[in-house]
Every structure is written in structure tokens, then in C-alpha cells.
Specification:
The structure is a homodimer of 516-residue chains. Chain A has 18 helices and 16 strands. With 516 residues, the first copy, chain A, is an alpha/beta fold. Chain A has a domain at 350-515: Aspartate Aminotransferase, domain 1. In chain A, helix 10 (252-263) packs across helix 14 and helix 15 crosses helix 17 (485-503). The longest helix of chain A is centred in the C-terminal third of the chain and has 31 residues, at 338-368. Chain A is globular, with a radius of gyration of 26 Å. At the A-B interface, helix 1, helix 2, strand 1, strand 2 and helix 3 of A face helix 1, helix 2, strand 1, strand 2 and helix 3 of B.
């Protein structure tokens, strides 16, 4: 069914051997009579795990607004319990034993069912590609983009605007790609389609369709990293007064509200994927807790097989606690929240983060007053946790726009210099923000079939264009509204004061400093 | 203090960048006034984690033999509880948030204290080295040795006997290493010093000292993977009748017994390490449960720094549940087991596994009767979970010892062929065992500065010697005694019958087959 995409696999991936111990195990599983005895595996016997039970205490979500109830301590407790070998979907004896690299069958099945609800009719059900050129939004999450650099991977920045990737710019980049100078044409696109980190953009449906068509045209694999999927702010019901549970027990209203919200989501790349060229990454870090350290990848059989082999020969398998927690959580009430309860929690969580977003933008805009739009401004993110504050550096008294001759390797303006000054002032004044430079994708050219980076001087024109692009666009700060209301209000206030001083005419500033 | 070992770092390790977001965070931590506000991190606020409490139910270990009590359901329950922000060493709000790649400070401190108890006076407190040649015991654990093969790493097998690595053989291997033909001299040794997987050997103190001296002589980094450290069977007190808790509450007797047992352990490589050339890997997979998926590495500052950078840009950090569990478990009673209680659990666990070891050896020896020593035999492992059963294939009616001319690339004997036949018969008869071939380290020669494997025909003499060594020594089966008594008894019985048929004269065997 899926298109043959095996030419995308790296030399490393193709060279990876299956774990021979797991191979024997599978061989034996297929061949043996029922009741066969194994003396093969080095598994401690489950009767010797000193664990009789685990209880996870969570809030009940059957009330109208479970997030509001939880925040005010006005909630019913629900307990997810698992014992050694009781009726739990994932008993301790199974969850805490060695298991397959891909996780337990029970949990995989549960997550596949969730996929069917969210990404309707998923045709595929699971890579690391070191080597050559990959595409990423020109500002992206370094937790991911940094990691393969040491394997010699080169990231190629894709131009974005406030809605995310610009399809025409992506097409132009690939159309004008010169393999003789730039090496293999990029064949993987890493992107964060909702509440993009750091710019906050959410790709509209039309762009998603165009990007997928371009992926087909240029034979590109899409890695869809979607941690903020459940933090989408458009089409949420307005926040109603807390109803103390009346009408709250999975009532029709509650259910239809959730449907309505989710139905407005732009389709994921996974749900558009007819070729098997999408790897979708989900996580519960943002909607449950980061310490869960559990995510899942949905992809075609080809990629799934290689990911499983990678896991079998490295970290081996996900931890039992998180697998128990999710298995229990997704059980139907009264045992767990069930998918409906989970979505109800997510919806109200999105309402809460939307409120925090509005609080932050209001604080900065009100604080700047008439200078909003002159000193700084922002688009309103439709999802995620970040405001991408545009700092209008050209208003700075020391801004310089024609620093260097056009054939020089240095950028034309002092934007990067000024933004660093602003960042340092924020630190000194007691507020930490993330400057755009932290997220800038640095394109390093590479000759075809070369394992070492090109000397930057060997393609000065291309390199300068890239460096300039990123430097000119680095006049942004990423502000997180994930903290408390107090942190948002106080932090915004310090930021506003720091911006005022930053843009103050030189004479005023000198006076300020003398006063200190 | 540590010797400068930075020349051991791979190109990849040296090329790995720190995660710039974490860099900003650390910068800010050092510079800021108290009470500074962060708008930098994309952390969900802990008040929105839907978790109020987790309870891990475990057996109390203050009785004389907690393992015996647990196995018979005759135990007191103890509950490790952690709440959102209570008095726990690791509260949910901290444990379930993003944290440093190296884990929480609290748990690191706890584990360092445990190290001080076990490896006295550890001078260092935390690598993947792709590229070139590494040493491993000639039969080793493929879960580890397989994983770096796709990065082009070459394993060089070190001769072992029933006590593990033979120091003189290691010295000879390094002395006769020809870098012009074989590439860079091996500079890393991966070994399993206790209950070696698969051969069951435990390195005596004298060998450890000699191996460490050789590591200094030849500038080798030792990776000490020690999952069976707490399953050492020598010097255990004989199993006494269960005393129902009398004298069991951390009494002096209990304590001194534990001391005695541990004091007999050969020193770990870590405790011999004056240069900072040892990376010790510990895990609770064998003494708590594999699903915990938590281990720790103790090493010098150099390696620690690079491991942290690797973690920060890949899996990010250990999961919160396991960190909570261990933090609570190592608290002093009555909150947790404390180090003494943990050692008490381990000691009695070792007694239990020793009993299982003896059961398995007795079953096979008794089953074979007069043929024990003729058909098969074994050494008695002093630790771990495995019996390494020697199969005397030269007794097989079809054994051939001079198959090929000495300049051929094929092995001299049909040992490998016969052992595969035996393995298949075991499968068919309903018992799964692990053949030695699964664990054989395959030396593949590599020219210096070559990224591809040498064609095997280009150094036939060396290659043949290696292939022969491994083939001749592959007449072993790894038998796990980690299962139930019932599995051990039944599995051993099937194995004995299979061995009898395997060694039966051809005419007898034919008759058997005709009868079926």
C-alpha cells in the first residue's frame, strides 16, 4: 500500500542488525508447541519484583470543567491502580518485565485506537536518518535539530511566516537546489505544525495540503512533531462559570462540545498521508507531564521496522510505569478517563493556556501603551505555549542597516548585536527570555560525497545570503506563557521596562545609567 | 586528578554541541538575582499536571528474610508515597517536570552515597565511542555489542575462561597488535565482571588488578557493565528457616551478615580506578524489575560532561516515576528501605537465585547420570543468572575434526553445524535455550583510516584464526535459571532427553525416528 521509500534510509539504518537474542525469541514463538519452556531469557522472574501494587491518584474528569476544578482543589479523586496480576490491562508482572522495543501490545493498540479517532482512517500504523540534508523551519527546536549535527547532518532552513512554512518558498528552495554545489537534495522535512516552537505558528489546512503535495513532488519524508496538538485555541467554547459537576457526567453537551473543537483542527500530515511518507510524533509531555517521558511515533511499516530494531539495540523498551499509567488512563470510566475524558481534560487545558496567552499579550501591549507596534508587537498564536515577540530593532538609536559591502561575509545590519544586548539587559533586570538566535537553523554547505563541512569561503555568495536571512530575522524573543499568572504579569512588566530603556534615545539612557 | 583521557573521545562525541536552550538556562541560573522570573522555558506549569499522588506498594524488608516472606505472601506491606509538593525527597511537581539530562540532583546524591558504601572512596563521580576497535569478552551480550556496529565499530574478542578475561591473553593480543594491518589499537574494553553474560564467569580480584594494570599500560578505557553485582553467590549465609520476623528488625546480626557478604566481593574496576578510565554501569533491572528502565553510570568528569550533552540532545532525562521510586526506596526506615534494607533484600535475593542455580545444575547432572561429563558438564557460576553448559561435541558420532585444509577460510571442525542441530532439536522438543553462537564476537578486520570493512579475503590468515577460535568454542548453551522451579525442572528434563538423542549412536537414532 505504502510507496517504496526505502531509498530514504541511511547507511547506518540499513547496517543496523536485529538483536539476535530477540530474533531467537521470535523464531521460538512461531515454532513452539503451546506450553514450551524457556531457559533462554535472562529475565528475573516477576515473582521476585518487590512490587505488589501502584496507585496513581488523578482528578476525576467527569465534571464540566475538570481543569478548573483541579486548579481550585475542588475535585473528586480517581485512582488508577495496577496489581501484580489482577484485571488491569497491564499487570505489574508484565509492565515491569523486559518487553518488546516498541512497547506493550496493549498500549500500542490503545494508541492506535486514539489515532483512529484523531487522524481518521490512518493508513499506516512506525527513524533517525543521519547523513545529508534535512529541511526544518528556519527557526526550530534545538532539542531536536542539534542532536544529529554530530553525525554530519546538515539542516536547510525553510522560510516561514506567522502561519508557518510558506509552501511556495519551499518549492522554490527545492526547484533551485544545485546538487553539484549543495549536495544531495533535502529529502526529509522536520516540522512542528501546531504552535510552532519558537514562532507559535499553526499551519492552516490549505498549506498542509500544498506541503504534502510538494513532499510527493520532491520525494520528501515528513517528520511531524506535534507536541502542542491538544493546545489549539481556536473554536474553543467560551469559558463558562464552574457548574460544580451538574450536567457534567459525560453529558451529551460535554461530548458534542469536544467534538466541535477537535473537528476544527486542521488535518494532521499523518491523516493526509497516502504514501507512507509521514512519521508523526506524539507526546503527553504538555498535557499530562514531561516527567512521563513517553511519546509515540506513528509511521509506515518500513520505518516502524527500523525504529524497532534501533530500540531493541539501544534503550530496549519504554518504562513500565508510564505504560501502566497510560493503559489505565485510557480505560473507559469508571476505571480510567477513557478517550472522551482525556479529550475533555485537554480541551479545558487549552482554555486555560489560551487565558494565559491573552494575559501575557495584554500585559505587554498595555505596558507598552502607544509604543506597542513601534517598539514591539506580535501575532496572536493559535496554539502552543509561546508568544513570538517582534522587536522593531530599526527603531533603535544605534541601528545600522548598511554595515558592510555586499560581497562581505558579515551581515548587513547589526540586528544580531542589538538583540544580544537586549537579551543581556533582560537577564540583568531579572527576566529570562529566549532570543531568536537560539533557534536559528544554520545552513552549512557540504559538497556532494564529502563527509566534512565545506570551508565557508568556498561558496561565499550562498553562505552570505543564508547568514543574512537569519540575522535579519533574529529580531524576536520567545516568551513562554506556561508559568503562573504572577510570573507572566511580573515578567512582562520587567520586559516592558527593559524594552523602554533599550529604545530610549541615547541621551536619556546615559542619564539613567548615571543615576544608578 | 584524573589522567587526561580526552584522546579517547570519538569525532562524533567531540562534535556534539551542548543544547543551547540548556546553556541559556545555566547562564541565567548563575547570573540572576534571587526571585528572577523566567519567560524562557516551555515547561507546562506543575499545577496543571493531573497528578496528586503516587503510591508504590512494596514489601517491608525489616524481617529476617524478606524475599522468602514475599514469595510466600507472608509479608508486611510498605507504601512509598509521593505527593505534589509534600515532604518527599522528590515531589511530583519536580519529578514530573523537565529536568537535567543527568537526572535529579537528589537521586544523583543518593546514588553517589550508595557508591561510597559499595566501591569505597570513589575518586570520580560520570560515552559512546563510535569508530575504531573495542575489546569485548569473546562471548558477550549482543544487546550492547550489536548496537554500535552500524556506526562502523569493530569488536575484538578477548579470550576468556571460566573465571572471565585471561589477563595474559589480553596482554598478548595488545602486544602483537599490528596497527598497519589491523587499524587503531583497541582503546576501550567492554566487560561484564560478575556472572558474565553468557558464560557466568566472575573475575577474581587478582585478575581485576592485572586487567586494570594492562588498561594503564595500553591506555584502555574500561566499561564495567555490572548488572549482576548483587547476585553474587559466594559467602552467603546458609539459608535459615524463616523466623517470622523475630530478631529481624535491622538487628545487629542481620546487619553484620550483610557486611560479611559484601565484604567478600572482589573490588569493582571503579574502586580500583585511579586514572578516571572506568565507566561503571549499574542497574536495578535484576534486583527490582527491568520495567524500571533506570540505570546509572559512574565515571570521570570528562566522560560525565559528554554523556550529559548526549542525553540533553536525545532522550533528555530519565522518567519521573523511577526517580521517585528510587528516591523513596533509599530513604531511611520507616519511610523507605534505606541502603541497609536494600542490601538485605539483595542478599536474600542472591540466596534465592543460588538455590535456583543449584536446582538447575542438579537436575541436568542427575538427569544425565553417568553421562554427565561425557555428553555435557559445566562450571558452577559464582554469580548472575546463567549456567554455561559445555556440550562435548567431539563425542557426537558425526563429529569431524579435520574438515578443511589449513589455508581454507572454513573452520576445521563441524562444531557450529552440530550445535545448530542441537539447538533446533531443543526448539522442536519444547525447550528454548541460547546457543553460544548468538553471543560470539565476530572480529571484522579494518584497514587503518578505512570506513568500510575489509574484504574478508584480504587477510585470510588472521580471519581464519579468529573464525576458528569462535567456532571451536561455540559448543556451549546458555541456560537461564531465572524462571520458576517448575520451568527449571521440566526444561532441564527435556534438555537431558534431547542431549541423549543427540549423542545416541546413529543406528539407535534411526530406530527412534522410525518409531515416530
Amino acid at each position: 500500500m505504502a510507496v517504496d521509500l526505502s531509498h530514504h534510509l541511511s547507511v547506518e539504518t540499513k547496517a543496523r542488525l536485529a538483536n539476535p537474542m530477540k530474533t531467537i525469541w521470535r523464531l521460538a514463538q512461531g515454532k513452539l508447541k503451546a506450553g514450551a519452556i524457556t531457559l533462554a531469557n535472562g529475565d528475573p522472574h516477576p515473582s521476585l519484583f518487590p512490587l505488589s501494587r501502584v496507585d496513581f491518584h488523578i482528578p476525576d474528569v467527569s465534571v464540566d470543567d475538570p481543569v478548573e476544578a483541579w486548579r481550585h482543589g475542588d475535585y473528586q479523586e480517581q485512582i488508577l491502580s495496577t496489581t501484580v496480576s489482577g484485571s488491569s490491562p497491564l499487570a505489574l508482572r508484565t509492565a515491569m518485565q523486559y518487553c518488546a522495543g516498541k512497547g506493550t501490545t496493549e498500549l500500542c493498540n490503545t494508541l492506535q485506537e486514539l489515532n483512529l479517532v484523531l487522524h481518521t482512517d490512518v493508513p499506516q500504523n512506525n527513524v533517525i536518518f543521519p547523513g545529508d540534508n534535512f529541511l526544518a523551519e528556519e527557526f526550530s527546536y534545538p532539542g531536536i535539530t542539534n542532536s544529529p549535527l554530530c553525525h554530519g547532518l546538515n539542516w536547510v532552513p525553510v522560510p516561514i511566516d506567522s502561519d508557518g512554512i510558506v509552501p511556495d518558498a519551499l518549492d522554490h528552495l527545492l526547484e533551485t537546489w544545485d546538487s553539484a554545489v549543495q549536495g544531495r537534495r533535502p529529502h526529509v522535512l522536520y516540522c512542528i505544525p501546531v504552535g510552532q516552537n519558537p514562532t507559535g505558528g499553526t499551519l492552516p489546512m490549505e498549506r498542509r495540503r500544498k506541503i504534502y503535495e510538494l513532499a510527493q513532488k520532491w520525494d520528501i519524508v515528513i517528520i511531524e512533531d506535534d507536541p502542542y496538538y491538544f493546545l489549539q485555541f481556536d473554536h474553543l467554547p467560551s469559558q463558562e462559570p464552574h457548574t460544580n459537576g451538574v450536567n457534567g457526567l459525560n453529558g451529551v453537551n460535554g461530548h458534542s462540545k469536544q467534538k466541535k473543537w477537535i473537528d476544527h483542527f486542521a488535518p494532521s500530515f499523518l491523516s493526509l498521508d497516502v504514501d507512507g511518507r509521514v512519521l508523526r510524533i506524539d507526546t503527553v509531555s504538555k498535557v499530562i507531564a514531561p516527567g512521563m517521558r513517553l511519546g509515540w511515533i506513528t509511521c509506515s511499516e518500513l520505518f516502524h521496522r527500523h525504529l524497532e530494531s534501533l530500540t531493541d539495540s539501544s534503550t530496549q523498551h519504554p518504562h513500565g510505569w508510564g505504560q501502566i499509567f497510560l493503559s489505565e488512563l485510557f480505560r473507559q470510566p469508571p476505571h480510567g478517563w477513557g478517550p472522551d475524558g482525556f479529550l475533555r481534560w485537554c480541551e479545558h487545558l487549552a482554555i486555560e493556556y489560551k487565558r494565559k496567552r491573552d494575559l501575557m499579550i495584554t500585559e505587554v501591549r498595555t505596558g507598552l501603551g502607544d509604543d506597542w507596534g513601534t517598539f514591539a508587537d506580535c501575532d496572536v498564536p493559535a496554539g502552543g505555549m509561546f508568544v513570538w515577540l517582534r522587536v522593531n530593532v530599526e527603531q533603535h538609536p544605534n541601528f545600522a542597516s548598511d554595515l558592510t559591502a555586499s560581497d562581505s561575509l558579515l551581515p548587513q545590519t547589526n540586528t544580531a548585536y542589538l538583540m544580544n544586548e537586549l537579551f543581556q539587559s533582560c537577564l540583568n533586570n531579572g527576566v529570562i527570555v529566549m532570543p531568536a538566535a537560539t533557534f536559528a537553523i544554520q545552513h552549512q554547505f557540504r559538497r556532494p560525497d564529502e563527509t566534512h563541512m565545506l570551508d565557508v569561503r568556498s561558496c561565499p555568495v550562498l553562505l552570505k545570503r543564508e547568514a543574512d536571512d537569519r540575522a535579519q530575522k533574529s529580531n524576536f524573543l520567545r516568551l513562554s506563557f506556561g508559568g503562573t499568572d504572577d510570573a507572566i504579569v511580573k515578567g512582562s512588566s520587567i520586559l516592558v521596562e527593559t524594552l523602554r530603556k533599550f529604545f530610549a534615545p541615547i541621551e536619556t539612557r546615559l542619564t539613567d545609567e548615571e543615576q544608578v
